[in-house]
Amino acid sequence: MQQNQNPFYPNLFRPIDLGFTTLKNRVLMGSMHTGLEEDRDGFYRMAQFYKTRVRGGVGLIVTGGVAPNRAGWLAPFSLRLANRRQVRDHRVITSEVHDGGGKICMQILHAGRYGYHPLCVAPSPIRAPINRFKPRVLSERGIDSTILDFAACAALAREGGYDGVEIMGSEGYLINQFIVGKTNRRQDRWGGTFANRIRFPLEIIKAIRREVGEDFIIIYRLSMLDLVKNGSTWDEVVELARKVEEAGATIINTGIGWHEARIPTIATLVPRGGFTWVTGRLMGKVSIPLVTSNRINMPEVAEAALENRCADMVSMARPFLADPDWVEKAAKGKTDEINTCIACNQACLDHIFTRKIASCLVNPRACFETSKILRKTVTHKRIAVVGAGPAGLSCAVTAAARGFSVTLYEAGEQIGGQFLLAKKIPGKEEFGETLRYFKHQLELLDVEVRLGKRPGVAELCRYDEIVIATGVKPRRIELEGIEGPNVSVYNQLLSGQKQPGRSVAIIGAGGIGFDVAAYLVHNSQDNGDAVACFMDEWGVDMQYRSQGGLKEMKKMDPPRSVYLLQRSNKKPGINLGKTTGWIHRSLLKKNGVKMLNGVEYVAATDSGLVIRRGGEKQLLEVDEIVICAGQESELELAEQLANGKMRYHLIGGALKAGELDAKRAISQGVELADSF
């Protein structure tokens, strides 16, 4: 008897039969390292993390990477599964997942030359450009031993209660390093011809299948698009996929790009579903299910990938940080209630690369399920939140969700604060989704929203708690000629109050300066398919005629010339996001933005901006000068309350200006509301 189709997303919620087991939907929660793996209470915290996502309806979970041996560590003392003593810890995770009705696979990841430690190994002694450690060469005996370690790790995973394993064969890790000539210069039976280079992954799959039997899921993460020179050709990808199926894999998952590739693959500026076409090319070439991935963050994107036969399943990782109930909300057609992943990387990947526990900018409870718990209030309080930027919105929504009576005041005519400007930046349009989410939550939770309203002391004294989230205002600088008609502040430009000229000098090269530069060089005349435009701009060949899928980047034709200036002698953009800063710098460089450091600002004139650099004075002949020189806290109301001896709370930019920090603002809003 055929099951009833989901009325909203019929393809997404169609079960998938793997022969020995059935997945209840087509959603795979992709592997991501959270930092919990190395935490003292990590297994308990991971169990609660995964349990929360299972309750939210995800069909199959894949854990963060687990090394099969010490050489495979990502870093010293990373998570490893190599003996029976470690199995009990993993059962803490699998029992919670199974109790919730879910399925979970453990990813086996050998870092190879990406291992950040002196024990790292590789097929050839070629140091990775993103690692200071040069790998030791795996001997033939070492290769045989590593294959056995993979198989033993999978057997232990089965003993630990996992429903399967994912073999990490992409993103430039050890297995991927064996597959391509770029990193495999061997002349023995493990190198040279393509047949020899793919022997390593195939022997691993066969060894695992022998150890675990037929009723165990084996996912192989296949690098379908290396995005590095001398990477795999498309014919090689197809050949490997077919042999992976023959070797015993149950599912093939999509890997896009090596970690050293200089092409964005998961950042905000990547179009939604931007790489589903790659998986789509492989459809029909194998008979086992294919999973597509990267920048799938909303149900309509996932549904379209399945409907267009780009894949049999979709993989999402960070969207489950943003909203653990993503699947359940999609199943009920409540997409407006989904807290959308905006692919900012600020609290997830940036945290991991600085050895912190991952979380999420739009959901600070992610990975803190055991400590940051939403608790209903047992007391009645009336709470006033002044300012509907990120901090005020998160505080108001959280307080209302706890059961408090909340009034949100906003001086402007719409909610959003600095997010209203952020979403104007090309590649940051996803911030609009966060505002959509908050707006819908305000309605659902009956928050009284008063727009165009600046409350005074007399009105606020009626509340039990007063939260000041009035944000920031641009910092004024001392500059001769600053009142001239050709001088503007970043918020005037981004809000449309002022139109830029054909040449612009930006004073300040922090995050806002980089955003304004991106806004200025963006060609609004660009039309056509967003995915094709992105691939052309970054040099990705959608016809896959070359190794690694690379081609020459499209030459940019920016609508204006831009100078990006800073006082410091440091490299411009040095304080941008750990994992996205290089993207912003590359984008501006490609568009001809001239970045100058060590600049002293002398005067703004009708002819442009006079500066002094290296002791020499010079004139930058520009039509417009835009000031992005930092911010100051907006504290007028706070000062009035203080003068009236009234108690209040400061959060977000009102507490600390500095660079705009939505991650800090939203987190502070949640933490304060939790404390009431």
Automatic annotation (TrEMBL):
Protein name, as recorded: 2,4-dienoyl-CoA reductase
Organism lineage string: Bacteria, Pseudomonadati, Thermodesulfobacteriota, Desulfobulbia, Desulfobulbales
Example GO biological process: fatty acid beta-oxidation, unsaturated, even number, reductase/isomerase pathway
Required cofactor(s): [4Fe-4S] cluster; FMN
Ranges of residues in domain FAD/NAD(P)-binding: 382-641
Domain of life: Bacteria
GO molecular function, one term: metal ion binding
Organism expressing this protein natively: Desulforhopalus singaporensis
Any matching Pfam family: Pyr_redox_2
Family per record: In the N-terminal section; belongs to the NADH:flavin oxidoreductase/NADH oxidase family.
InterPro entries assigned to the protein according to its UniProt record, in alphabetical order: Aldolase_TIM, FAD/NAD-bd_sf, FAD/NAD-binding_dom, NADH:flavin_oxidoreductase, OxRdtase_FMN_N
Keywords for this protein: Flavoprotein, FMN, Iron, Iron-sulfur, Metal-binding, Oxidoreductase
Residue intervals of the NADH:flavin oxidoreductase/NADH oxidase N-terminal domain: 12-336
CDD domains referenced in this protein's UniProt entry, alphabetically: DCR_FMN
Membrane-spanning ranges: none
